[in-house]
Amino acid sequence: MHRRSSLGGLWGLLGPHLESQQVNQALSQHFHPHHLLCNSPGWEVLGLLVWALIADTPYHLYPAYGWVMFVAVFLWLVTIVFFILYLFQLHMKMYMVPWPLVLMIFNVGATVLYITAFITCSAAVELTSLKGTRPYNQRAAASFFSCLVMIAYGVSAFFSFQAWRGVGSNAATSQMAGGYA
């Protein structure tokens, strides 16, 4: 009975006659644990902190921070779009899009862009502000958070790669994907 209540609306769609293995197989096809990691609101908050901390300083005077702002804001917006797609399960309506591949490419690209943003932001802190001042502290904090976001996108890229490659699928999922339904 606990399994039925934890499935929520999905149980009503699947019907009460499904065996436990069929329910697990149906869930594994439409919900992967990496979706929580790849589309976690936590990454969006960290990305927001990066560009908010820099935006509160006179960043327009230094071209390095223009690049960091572009990377942070652009990837923050795209991540929000992916989060909304997965939150409302809109990705399931666009079945022709290879979502595991799209997420993997996005996460790898975001990781590479955040590596450049982290290096740029970290290298520019000492050059653009005096130690101990408010802009210095904000830019140093932005460097720290950009490192965290870079690591988060890197971990997401790893899990996206595994989802794209099919690691972790069971025999039932493999058979379903092979057309033996």
TrEMBL record:
Pfam families: MARVEL
Bilayer-spanning residue ranges: 64-88, 100-120, 140-161
Keywords for this protein: Cell membrane, Membrane, Transmembrane, Transmembrane helix
GO molecular function term, any single one: structural constituent of myelin sheath
Top-level taxon of origin: Eukaryota
Any one GO CC term of the record: myelin sheath
Swiss-Prot/TrEMBL GO biological process terms: myelination
Domain MARVEL: 31-165
Chief location bin: membrane
Subcellular location: Apical cell membrane; Myelin membrane
Self-association and partners: Forms oligomers.
Family to which this protein belongs: Belongs to the MAL family.
PANTHER family named in the record: MARVEL-CONTAINING POTENTIAL LIPID RAFT-ASSOCIATED PROTEIN (PTHR22776), PLASMOLIPIN (PTHR22776:SF9)
Protein name in UniProt: Plasmolipin
Organism: Leptonychotes weddellii (Weddell seal)
Lineage, opening ranks: Eukaryota, Metazoa, Chordata, Craniata, Vertebrata
